[in-house]
Amino acid sequence: MDAPSPSDSDPLWWRSAVIYQLYIRSFADGDGDGTGDLAGVRGRLDYLKQLGVDALWFTPWYASPLADGGYDVSDYRQIHPAFGGIDEAEALIREALELGIRTIIDVVPNHVSSEHEWFRAALEAGPGSPERDRFWFVDEPPNRWVSNFQGETWTQVPDEHGPDGQWYLHLFTPEQPDLNWNHPDVRREHEDVLRFWFDRGVAGVRIDSAALLVKDPLLPDVTGAEPAGGHPNTDRDEVHDIYRSWRSVADEYPGTRVLVGEVWMPDPVRFTNYLRPDEMHTAFNFDFMTRPWRGAELRESIDSMLVAHAPVGAPSTWVLSNHDVTRAVTRYGRDDSSFAFASKRFGIPTDLDLGTRRARAAALLTAALPGSLYVYQGDELGLPEVEDLPEGSRQDPMHFRSNGVDPGRDGCRVPLPWAGDRQPYGFSPGDTSPWLPQPDSWASFTVEREAADPGSMLSLYRAALRIRRTLAGDESLAWLDSDPDVLCFTRGSRFVNVTNLSDRPIDLPEHRELLLSSAPLADGRLPTDATAWLRT
Ligand code: GLC
């Protein structure tokens, strides 16, 4: 096969890479049906090149009923027809590589879609069949596990399949039945899927819900008193065997094919266990993202992550947002208490000017830290969360399963504005309405406008990613003495980051050249909620 192959000239590319998270449905629509697609991405590769990213991470682009935005995969070897086809995916991978941009895809091993052929076969074949052994079918719900999307985790086989009385497990929605990872077919199939995509030139995989795969076969209730590694459905010690095998698959290929885990794990040691040298390369650091905008909090988060990663030799990752959380400019425009996990609700008071200043400062701060950096599409434009989506347009099961209390995740998934002054803002070639409506106020956020404005978020990101490249070789960080509300550190001998979270302007260290700042200096001083980058 004439597959593109990420070169092995730089096996350490992933340690300091800037990875752009591409939510394909909402990036750019090439064929004019109101849904983003591969053609749309191929037409905008220059934009991504100019932004200065090293890799693209595509959220699931496979065949799927889209019951959970594509995290319900019905066929791993097909692209969703609304997005394109396999040939086009290969062409995209190749074209991106020609620009020096690698491709990372999302794999969702904990569950499949209820439309996946395995699950359909399991329903057809009935109780006691080998087909059912690939999932968790039981005669009675054996526990009261709570879904990650609220509500029940056990659903009874639907009547149309003949009411055989059995129930199946789903940690997410009923359209996402959990796989049984004790079954050899499940293990073999996923290794084949990895090879299928590595053969097509992808440079890595992002592993969805990576800590959930293995379940205690006795399916006991969660008591809260489980020892580390003994939780019935999360972070069980046996899960690491899976990633050891995946690492051997990845290591069969030239160049580094990177494994990136989605591991929500408060305990830093349990977290970095996934990053041992024969397991994943990196995992998302979500701690930083969940901290409120306070100097001591952020510094503590940075330090604890750097300390936790040191023994395993893996670099940390830095993430300001993603397709599951409230947009950064909105979050940082809120009171501290809204950073608590699961606090999402309607009507939280928000100051978007404040949030934007802080998100700009945070963008520079995270870009200055050693490790890899994730940029969620639209954050480079400073898009706010869309909180007033019209009734009837929301799609996220999280919203529905909370009975409408949680706004869900649609507000951070609204299609990008590219140009013009009204919907679809260049997202689609014609006038088609996008799959999620864009706000009337988005003319000021278009790529066209921001590219022409040196003070825009986009201009800040472009400049920051350009300068960041010069820091890549050096993974050290040294704090300089400062007020606890000022985050001041060096990278290497020449670069200094100063982030001011105090309530007054501060003097910058002397004899340094200002490279970039997230807000204009006033009389040479750095204002509140701003970051400056300096060079000796
Ligand atoms: C991950 C994804 C999220 C998805 C869930 C279930 O957390 O990021 O979007 O809904 O897994 O697959």
Mind sketching the topology for me?
Elements: E1 18-22, H1 38-42, H2 45-51, E2 55-58, E3 62-63, E4 75-79, H3 86-98, E5 102-107, H4 117-125, E6 137-138, E7 154-156, E8 167-169, H5 184-199, E9 204-207, H6 239-251, E10 258-261, H7 268-272, E11 282-283, H8 295-309, E12 317-319, H9 328-331, H10 352-368, E13 372-376, H11 397-401, H12 447-451, H13 457-468, E14 478-479, E15 486-491, E16 495-500, E17 506-507, E18 513-517, E19 525-526, E20 530-535
Parallel strand pairs: 1-2, 1-13, 2-5, 5-9, 9-10, 10-11, 12-13
Antiparallel strand pairs: 3-4, 6-8, 7-8, 14-15, 15-16, 16-20, 17-19, 18-20
Helix pairs in contact: 5-6, 10-13
The protein binds alpha-D-glucopyranose (GLC).
What do these coordinates show?
It is a single chain. The chain is of the alpha/beta class and 536 residues long. Among the domains are: 117-169, Oligo-1,6-glucosidase, Domain 2 (Oligo-1,6-glucosidase, domain 2); 474-535, Immunoglobulin-like. The protein is built from 13 helices and 20 strands. The strands form five sheets. Strands 11-10-9-5-2-1-13-12 form an eight-stranded parallel β-sheet. It has a five-stranded antiparallel β-sheet with strand order 14-15-16-20-18. The structure holds alpha-D-glucopyranose (GLC).
